[in-house]
Each structure stands twice: as C-alpha cells, then as structure tokens.
UniProtKB/TrEMBL annotation:
It comes from the Bacteria. It catalyses: a (3S)-3-hydroxyacyl-CoA + NAD(+) = a 3-oxoacyl-CoA + NADH + H(+); 3-hydroxy-2-methylpropanoate + NAD(+) = 2-methyl-3-oxopropanoate + NADH + H(+). GO terms for biological process: L-valine catabolic process. Keywords: Branched-chain amino acid catabolism, NAD, Oxidoreductase. Pfam families: ECH_2, NAD_binding_11, NAD_binding_2. It comes from Marivita hallyeonensis. Residues 505-630 form the 3-hydroxyisobutyrate dehydrogenase-like NAD-binding domain. This is 3-hydroxyisobutyrate dehydrogenase.
Length: 639
C-alpha cells in the first residue's frame, strides 16, 4: 500500500502519510497500519522514538477519508462507520499513551483525523504553514479523535470557541491552545528528522526550536471567555447576539453553518470533560457515544452530502440553531449499548498472500484460511485450496497483503518471486519465506525487502507434509524481533513451535544444520538395522534397546525406518514419502554449500550428501521417503 510508508530508520520508527493529492486524508487501512506499527515498536528496544510526518506541502492530514462511510451509511449500513471509529479511536489512545516519544511534524492543514494522529504525541512540531482545526460540527459530527480532550484542556473558553466555530489555528495559536509544542521553520525539518532518526534522542529537539509567532487567540482570550462561557448552546448564541460586535457577528455566522445538534453535544462533551481530571479515554468514549449514532440519528450523512458529495454547501440540519431539545442531546450522549469502544489491543484477521501451493504450501494456506484469515494464493500450477482465493499472479496475491508467505523449491525461484512481489507489497508488511533455500539467497532477499520498507523473515519448517496438514510444524525463524512478533500468530496456526534464531538468514542456517544431523542420523539408523539383521538381532528387540538407550534419536524413536516397528511412519506405507529422499539431498547439498562458504569441516555431512546423491540419482531413491535407505542397506554387502 503506497498510502502510508512505515519503516524503521536508525533508532526511529517512521510513519509517513503518503496521499498528498488527497491532502493525506486518513483511510481505515491507514489507521490499522499505524496501530500495528505502534504495537510492533512498543517493546522493540531498537526503536527509541516514533516519528510521524507526511508527504506534500499542503497538509499533514486534512481529516478522515469519509467517502466509504457515506456510501455504507446511505445504504443503511452503520456498522462500517462504527467499526472505523472504534479502531481509529483505539489508535488515537495508543498514540496519546505511548511509552516512547512520539514526534509529529504538522505542516499545512491538520484537521479532524489528522489531529488524532499528529496532536496527541509527546513532541508536536509546527511551522509557518501549519493550520490546525477541528471542523467536525460542519459535517454533523463532534470534535472527535480525542480532539475534545485537547479542547477541554485549552485556556479559558478557547476550547468551546474552536470546537463550535472550527476556527483555524496557526503555529502560535496551536502552541498557546495546546495542540502543538514547538515551532521550527519548515526548512529545517528534514535535518532535524535525520538527526532524530540517527540518535533516537529528542532532547536536542527543544534546543532547535525557535520562538513561535504571535498567538492572536491569546489577545482575544477575555472576549472569547465572555462570549463562550454559557452552559448550553442557546446561552452562547444569545451572548453573541447581545454583543453585536464584529467579532461576535463573525462567530455567529460560523455557528449558523454548522449542525446545531453537533454543536450542542460538543459543548456538553467539553463541559463534562472539565469535571474532575480529563483523560484521553474518557474523551474518546464520550465522542464515540455521539459518532456511533451520528449516521442514523444525527446529521452526519447530510453533512457529508452537502460538503463532499453534492458540494452545495446547503445542508438541511435536523434542528434550528435556537432550539436543540435536551432530550435529543441526551439520546446522542447516553452510554452505548451495542459494541463498545475497547482500548485493548485487538487481534484481527490478516490479509495473507500465499505463493507456492504445493504439498507443503497448500495445507499451510488452508489452515490459515480455516483460522479466519483472508488468504489469496498463487501457484504456477492450477491449484484449488479450500478457503483460499486464487490470484492470477504472485504480485496480485501480494498486493495490500499484511503478510506474504512463500513456499518455493529453491533460492533462484525465491529471488525471482521476491523481485516480483516486493514492489507490489505495502510498506511495513511482512515477507515470510518458509522455503528451504541457501543462506545467501535468504539474506539477499531480506536485504531487498528491507530496502523497500518491508519486514523480511526466513522461516524454513520441519515436520513434513503431515505436520503441514496437522498444523504441527516447527519454524526456524531469522529476521527482526518486530517482524517475528507480527508473524507469531501465523506460526501458532501453522505449527506447534517457532524459534527466533536471530538475524536474517539464521532460520535457513538452523534448518540446514538440523537437516544435516537428520540425514546423518537416518543413515546411521538404517545401517544399524541392516547390521542387526545380519547379526540375527530381532528388529523389535533392537528398537526396544536403542530407543531407551544412548542410541536414542528422532530417526529411531519418531520416524523408525523399519516397517512395523515403533510409531507409524512412512516405512509402514512402503516408504511413500513423508519427506522425500530428493528433498533430503537438496538440504544436504545446501549444508555443504554453506560449509564451503564458511570454511567449515563437515566430513559426515559430506558423506551423507554423497550417499543420498547415489541413492536418488543412481539408484531407486527418487520418489521414496528418505528413510528408504534401510532396504538399500539390507540389499548391500560390505564394500
């Protein structure tokens, strides 16, 4: 997704809104992406601060993208908007309560949803183009996304004035009112961002800040306090009319453009928040009482129609400015009885692209779909997997996916697929490769993914086709801690164990070391059974001794190559592959390739590789389980 660019830059988690042509209006997907990134970085020791900015000169973020809300609301579907607000408000609270510094750079218009992203952090930077406002009453809402919390904390009655009139604040006013902290000329912003990312230290930010411009609202404070101190909307309207001055008349004209029910409820919310100690959660909960009802019982749909759809600027509000019944206000602000606002972290279904639907990939993808995730699969062969949507290309499967999983035959194919899908993936998504490939390819793909703002993981698996079907695989994972934590819910679905092995490529390193041991021990186990046969030792007796003695191994105890001995295994099915001999040969060759590259002495690994090469390429091993080495040794004599 190109609407938002999420990445780690030095010691900073970077979030860049990237819809400059739409004034960086916030979409539902952008809200979810911001929340996911913040949770990912919360406990990541490598991320010292979060830096939020936006592309373009005109706006940091001019509000929420409300077209979909209008479309669903006019169709009688109010659930979409309610879900949007719940998820957005949860993200707003996360920003406000974040345990690490959150630095935002607020150029141009910062309104509505932009305030929720940019004005709750610890360090809010404004410049000469900054214009901050809460214009929600003009479209039938109340100041939301936590904006009511900021308004309630403003000096005097400035909160009431700004919430009801939607007056825009420049840099000086924004700092005076409490929507911003620091003024810095915008020509210096990029240098400051670079320094923040490199150091992860916000202390020098204040040393760079300059004296802010004048705050006109400060000069008007006394007059605003007198005019906007009424208990109800009618009191404010009467005060403005009675004053009759130019300022009062201008303010009254602004109120006439807005939804009376919204203004009356906004005033009530601000007043309630001033009782006791206001906090962000209380503000958002009060806001949600109104917004969750705003389409069905308020003026929100009419407000969008007049301002955005038809653009006639002539909304037909439900109430007159002079008469908003108290009972209607009470109905909008009573506690929510349906699905309530929850500030805890929400586990949500992911959109997953799955590329490579072979014997292993297909059951893995099926398990993810069965768990409730949206899975879009692609394979060169035409493959139908229950619950998995089919894409026409790898890039289509990867588009807008939260996680792209690959299960591919070798490193060359992985590199080719990565070259196709990385440009199609949205920033901050995880590229999770479950193939078994060479370490060099894994690390090269990881480097390309990181350069594109993605989170790469190499996570080869152990457990075979049976483990893939049963969801009992073991994942050996290389990559960042943040990427690992993001993918962990998927590992829990597809497997019984996941081990984070360290940096990119370490998953493949662990897999080839593990399978080198497996190849060697299987050969030794098969040799021992063949020797026992020639010595006249009963196979069951052999198993009973070795499986409980120092010869214990997975090859003996869990995957016994002797038919009819020990737990059920491929040997009991005429060596139909659970793990094919040619795949073992592939993994052993990878181990020796890595050994050569790292100058490691692996004589048993070399010997096992040559034995499996002979078995697969010169004998009858291809298409048989790797434990079919036993009948091979049975038929052979020494020398």
């Amino acid at each position: 997704m190109t609407d938002i660019h999420i990445r780690q830059d030095g010691h900073a988690g970077r979030i860049t809104l990237n819809r400059p042509k739409a004034l960086n209006a916030l979409t539902y997907e952008m809200c979810l992406a911001i929340e996911d990134a913040l949770w990912r970085w919360r406990d990541d020791a490598g991320v010292k601060l979060v830096l939020i900015d936006a592309e373009g000169e005109k706006a940091f973020c001019a509000g929420g993208d409300i077209a979909e809300m209008y479309a669903t609301g006019t169709a009688g579907d109010f659930a979409y908007g309610q879900r949007f607000w719940r998820d957005e408000y949860r993200m707003n609270a996360l920003v406000a309560e974040y345990p690490k510094p959150v630095v935002s750079f607020l150029q141009g218009f910062t309104m509505g949803g932009g305030v929720g992203v940019g004005c709750h952090g610890s360090h809010r930077v404004v410049g000469d183009t900054s214009k901050i406002a809460m214009p929600e009453c003009g479209i039938g809402l109340v100041p939301d996304v936590g904006g009511s919390y900021l308004l309630a904390r403003a000096p005097g009655r400035l909160g009431e004035y700004l919430g009801l009139t939607a007056e825009r604040m420049g840099a000086g006013d924004a700092i005076h009112v409490g929507f911003a902290d620091l003024y810095l000329p915008e020509a210096e912003w990029e240098g400051v961002k670079t320094a923040l990312s490199a150091s992860g230290d916000v202390t020098h930010l204040k040393t760079r800040a300059q004296t802010p411009p004048d705050a006109p609202l400060a000069a008007q404070q006394a007059q605003i306090d007198a005019l906007f101190g009424g208990a109800q909307l009618g009191d404010v309207v009467n005060a403005l009319r009675a004053d009759g001055g130019e300022f009062a008349q201008s303010a009254l004209d602004k109120l006439r453009r807005n939804a009376p029910l919204s203004m009356a409820c906004a005033l009530e919310i601000i007043h309630r928040l001033r009782e006791g100690t206001p906090n962000i959660r209380k503000a958002l909960e009060l806001e949600y009482r109104f917004t969750s009802r705003s389409m069905e019982h308020g003026d929100f749909i009419e407000g969008i129609r007049a301002a955005i759809i038809d653009k006639d600027r002539s909304p037909k509000w439900r109430h007159d400015l002079e008469s908003v019944p108290a009972v209607d206000m009470a109905a909008m602000l009573r506690p929510v009885t349906g699905e309530k606002l929850d500030f805890e972290r929400q586990e949500r279904a992911m959109k997953i692209g799955f590329i490579g639907l072979g014997n292993m990939g297909a059951p893995m993808a099926k398990n993810l779909a069965r768990a409730g995730h949206e899975v879009i699969g692609y394979d060169m062969a035409t493959v139908a997997v229950d619950g998995v949507w089919s894409a026409r290309s790898a890039s289509e499967a990867a588009t807008d996916a939260d996680i792209v999983v690959t299960m591919l035959p070798n490193g060359d194919i992985l590199r080719a697929v990565a070259a196709e899908v990385i440009p199609a993936m949205k920033s901050g998504a995880v590229l999770l490769d479950c193939s078994t490939v060479d370490v060099e390819s894994a690390r090269a793909v990881a480097a390309d993914a990181e350069a594109a703002g993605l989170l790469p993981l190499d996570a080869p698996v152990s457990g075979g086709i049976g483990g893939a079907a049963a969801g009992t695989l073991t994942f050996m994972v290389g990559g960042s801690e943040a990427a690992y934590k993001t993918a962990l819910p998927l590992f829990d679905i597809m497997g019984q164990k996941a081990v984070h092995c360290g940096a990119s490529g370490n998953g493949q390193a662990a897999k080839i070391c593990n399978n080198m041991i497996l190849g060697v021990t299987m050969i030794a186990t098969c040799e021992a059974f063949a020797l026992a046969d020639k010595l006249g030792l009963d196979r069951q007796a052999m198993f009973d001794v070795v499986s409980t003695s120092s010869g214990y191994s997975w090859s003996m105890n869990a995957y016994c190559p002797a038919p009819g001995i020990g737990p059920q295994s491929p040997a009991d099915n005429d060596y139909t592959p659970g793990f094919a001999a040619e795949l073992m040969l592939k993994d052993l060759r990878l181990s020796q390739q890595a050994a050569e590259a790292s100058d490691a002495d692996t004589p048993l690994g070399q010997a096992a590789t040559e034995l499996y090469r002979t078995f697969v390429e010169d004998e009858d091993g291809k298409g048989r389980d790797f434990s079919a080495m036993l009948p091979r040794f049975e038929a052979r004599k020494r020398g």
